[in-house]
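Issue 218. Parser rejects a valid record. Input:
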Amino acid sequence: MPNLETKYMGITLKNPIIIASSGLTNSVEKIKDLENAGAGAVVLKSIFEEQINNEVIHLINRDPQNQYPEAEDYIWNYTRNNSITRHLNLLSEAKKETEIPIIASINCMSASEWTVFAKDFENAGADALELNLFFVPTDRHKTAEQIEQLYLNIVSEVKKNVKIPVSVKIGFYYTNLISMADKLVANGANALVLFNRFYEPDINLEKMELVASEVFSSPLDIRRSMRWIGLISSQLPKVEIAAATGIHDGEAVIKQLLAGAQVTQICSSVYINGSQIIPGMIADLTSFMKKWNFKKIEDFRGRLSYKNIEDPMLYERAQFMKYFSSK
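Output the parser choked on:
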């Protein structure tokens, strides 16, 4: 029987399937169901700096007569502490009720006191911490270097406060993604999660208004992350990578491992199919390993990464010139 066990940031997982941060992981009951279905680990639903700040501003603006600085300070502290406490309680209970690794998650936009809160998650028993870093740049005067430095500062400050491993979940909006990955690791990141799935707007023509676009990923989304996993895992071999977005079946899990991923994170597939999709993914992975006589995941991890294929241009090519020139 193939051994599906793997390590991620020094943590032993029974298999490489992690449930991504989402509403799927916002209660102990849901986490227990995912564990029973076979998940190797879960990332708790993120605590959002932006959301908490918006709640505070809403409460302050709701009572314009109250402009006392002391009152504003109280609202800020109460709202933030209340949100942090709820998250810590979930983390503590999940650690008591389950045996799989629990990864805490912070979605932050600044290197302020949020970096200190990371220590609270460590004390509550988190096996690791995932930092979800991205904001939409709307200031044309702010350079790419300034924005990237903000992300690096957050990682650096968090690492000063915790001993548990820290992963960084990022998007692909970088001129040189491999260089940015290198900088994140140099500033303390133990692993990278590729890629974040962002809220994106759409326009409803019937109502003439801006609405949210489709929130679930598509199986086709795997192609973008697989390219960069193949490239980054080859050029930065010490970097552990969690593949995310577009993983809807066992075949997608296998492909990301072949490209060089350490683990895979799933979300949309569980929302769409329920937790019963997890045993199917595990069965597909097991069958694949039996077919090729792989005893453990390390036997094939990265076998089709950028550095291990005959034609690296298959990863580098960005245009369709070969395909369309013959049409």
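Fixed in the parser; the record now loads. Residues 122 and 163 are 8 Å apart (CA to CA).
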